[in-house]
Amino acid sequence: MQPTQSAFLFDLDGTLVDSVYQHVLAWRDALEEAGLPLAVWRIHRRIGMSGGLFVSALARETNRTLDADEVNRMQNLHAKAFHRYSSQVRPLPGARELMAYLAQAGVPHAIATSGYRASAELSVRSLGIDASVPLITRDQVAHAKPDPDLFLAAAERLGVPIEHSVVVGDSIWDLLAARRAGALGVGLLSGGYGEEELARAGAYRVYEDPADLLAHLEEVGARPA
Fold this sequence. Notes:
By secondary structure, this protein is of the alpha/beta class. The protein contains ten helices and eight strands. The protein has helices at 20-33, 40-44, 51-61, 68-85, 95-105, 117-124, 149-158, 172-181, 195-201, 210-215; strands at 7-10, 17-18, 90-91, 109-112, 135-136, 165-169, 184-188, 203-207. A six-stranded parallel β-sheet has the order 5-4-1-6-7-8, with helices on both faces. Helix 8 (172-181) links the parallel strand 6 (165-169) and strand 7. It starts with 6 loop residues before the first strand and ends in a 10-residue tail after the last helix.
């Protein structure tokens, strides 16, 4: 009986590309322009959530109520600000090598991000991956993380059952979404969350960055096709 091949579903920001702090600064700029100045550490704790949930959660911290138009405006401000910072974004150590190995070995893999496609494509280009690798973005699903929609859609695109998938992410929002989807979760420290936080959110293994994960792929069930 042939063992079922695992699929790998990757978050993007903080997992494959070193872009978390560029997003933090972009949100800081957007929130300040919208009259919601907040300390960057508060912003960082929400990175990885859907943009709408993110803005609403931060608005609660400042006792503001936002309507849909205001939320959309801040999301647009963030997108413009991130474009200014995007030239600073680099692949995380080992990210290009990890994606190349999975492609060469025939291991199914996809990227699922809470970001919108316009922003995500700026970061994905730096990874040098083939256009055949599915990229699932916020534009394509009803709800983003911590809802499971992104990872469910990515597994469906690959034709692999979600329960045979491994979600790799750097934030508690990634891992909560993985648990809700029914997938195994692997955490990376490269987004700024601590090992205990990631484990508590559902990671059964935690590694430093993509290079560390690549060195330990046998621990998470990656096998050449």
